[in-house]
Amino acid sequence: xxxxxxxxxxxxxxxxxxxxxxxxxxxxxxxxxxxxxxxxxxxxxxxxxxxxxxxxxxxxxxxxxxxxxxxxxxxxxxxxxxxxxxxxxxxxxxxxxxxxxxxxxxxxxxxxxxxxxxxxxxxxxxxxxxxxxxxxxxxxxxxxxxxxxxxxxxxxxxxxxxxxxxxxxxxxxxxxxxxxxxxxxxxxxxxxxxxxxxxxxxxxxxxxxxxxxxxxxxxxxxxxxxxxxxxxxxxxxxxxxxxxxxxxxxxxxxxxxxxxxxxxxxxxxxxxxxxxxxxxxxxxxxxxxxxxxxxxxxxxxxxxxxxxxxxxxxxxxxxxxxxxxxxxxxxxxxxxxxxxxxxxxxxxxxxxxxxxxxxxxxxxxxxxxxxxxxxxxxxxxxxxxxxxxxxxxxx
Length: 395
Prior knowledge:
transmembrane beta strand; 48% strand; Porin_dom_sf; mainly beta; globular; single chain
């Protein structure tokens, strides 16, 4: 009995390392995704310019430490510590694991018995080529000299487990559940479960539960993401345990040949009122992008432009205007220069004369260092300038 007989939509093969891999659609028979990439989410329509202007400037905090490790069992552990310019130091620990195909065996004792005592298996139960996870693939049995079968007392598991157990294990493995547990110094414990491309092709579901160690449950959040070649939509439902309030936010983007149109709306379930709405237009090309967004109930208008000048230079600009206050137009200009494959430098300045510079380098494999500074060019002789550092270790 082969694995394909249990899962018609799955084709499995043995790699050189003896492990299995799935070569086509999942067990649900999903077709391969289209080569055309889906449009970005509503919050990411202006992402190229926003990332260039806002990310990798390290002056916001005095020091940031981050350690990323991965255990032999596949659990990714991330520890962060932040020392602000004012206030107390904070930190968090996150553990994340993805249960992918072939990464778990529900009936571990059965798999171990087959791997440990291969000579005690019956010929009709002999799926050769075991993977490290215990998922076994059936091949044509080779001719073996006839040997006397061992008594049942020498193979205690053989009589009660069949190849069906491995198929059930494979079913659970194909779920692709990602679990994340996070704890921080604010006594907040958060647990998240994710299902990506399992319920439907292009659909991702996330469920988050929060718990305060000194106060008990605080609430939870359900997030749904659905992406297809021409549209990208998201839905978020946030529940507060203390007040019982339920807030919902839905956004969507439609794209065609680089042109993007998107909208967002928030809804208060208890009050039955719309809490916010926004809209955006954009265009994205391989080397440049432009976006026009109207946020905060269409009261704040932002226009941004990003361009990759060449392989080493990137530039971006963003202008914003508040229709309610009718103040000055906010302007930010930023640039990034790639010094070498392991280092880059960034600089930006805004309409208030605040200039920021940053430098990032990968010192060696497993250690990345960043440093940045913020200067008030109109008050160089006064206090208020900031400097910050970032240390990232990976192992």
